[in-house]
Amino acid sequence: MQPQTVIPRFIRAAENGCERVAKFLIKKGADVNIQINSFKEPPLHYAIRKGHAQVVKVLLEGKANVNLKDRQGYTSLHIASQFGRTQIVEDLLKDKINIDVQDKYGKTPLYYAVKYEHIKIVKLLLEKGADPAYAHKPKAKKVGIAVGVITAIVTPLILAHTTVLSTLAIIGATIASALIIGSIAYGVTYMASKHALSSKLSEVNCDEVKKPLQV
């Protein structure tokens, strides 16, 4: 099979959701990370943009580079976050991906997820440690994120529903300025006893929070 026939077929397979063809081309040795047009978009980007989750899985199994950038500096996670591809974001986050990677405009996947109000994706990114400082600030208030708090964190904020924190130190932060998104609460407490990050804000005992922890 000649390269000039493999390349366009691979792109078409990714764009049109042809899982079987994608598997065949990978088996025949087609370059899963080929970038052919002026935008330097690999097959993975085409599949994500069109929402072909099964083809994305095939490409990932074929060792597609999740951190590969196109001409705009977009990675697969940028595109999935822009287009609201929740399942694909979940699959990408299982790989060794740079979650705070910036495109040529200095924007991260979280920025686009917030900008386009893809709440589930915002939650996923934050849970995996995405830096809230990069969020789209005008939209951040609407989706419930207090942007800028991250710069004051001196103890890592462990973003997991079942994680137990013995100490959570945030300079000048309060419950009002904590990160709240969807059903996940990021509470602040200065108590020495164990506090779980609950999946519901209502389960956080706000009476225990007398004042921000000063360090």
TrEMBL record:
Primary residence: secreted
Cellular component annotations (GO), alphabetically ordered: extracellular region; host cell presynaptic membrane; other organism cell membrane
Placement of ANK repeats on the sequence: 39-71, 72-104, 105-137
GO molecular function: fatty-acyl-CoA binding; toxin activity
Keywords: ANK repeat, Exocytosis, Lipid-binding, Membrane, Neurotoxin, Presynaptic neurotoxin, Secreted, Target cell membrane, Target membrane, Toxin, Transmembrane, Transmembrane helix
Location of this chain's protein in the cell: Secreted; Target cell membrane
Cited SMART domains: ANK
UniProt KW Nucleus keyword: no
Superkingdom: Eukaryota
SUPFAM superfamilies, sorted: Ankyrin repeat
Positions of transmembrane segments: 143-162, 168-192
Family annotation (PANTHER family): ACYL-COA-BINDING DOMAIN-CONTAINING PROTEIN 6 (PTHR24119)
Protein name: ANK_REP_REGION domain-containing protein
The encoding gene: COM42_02105
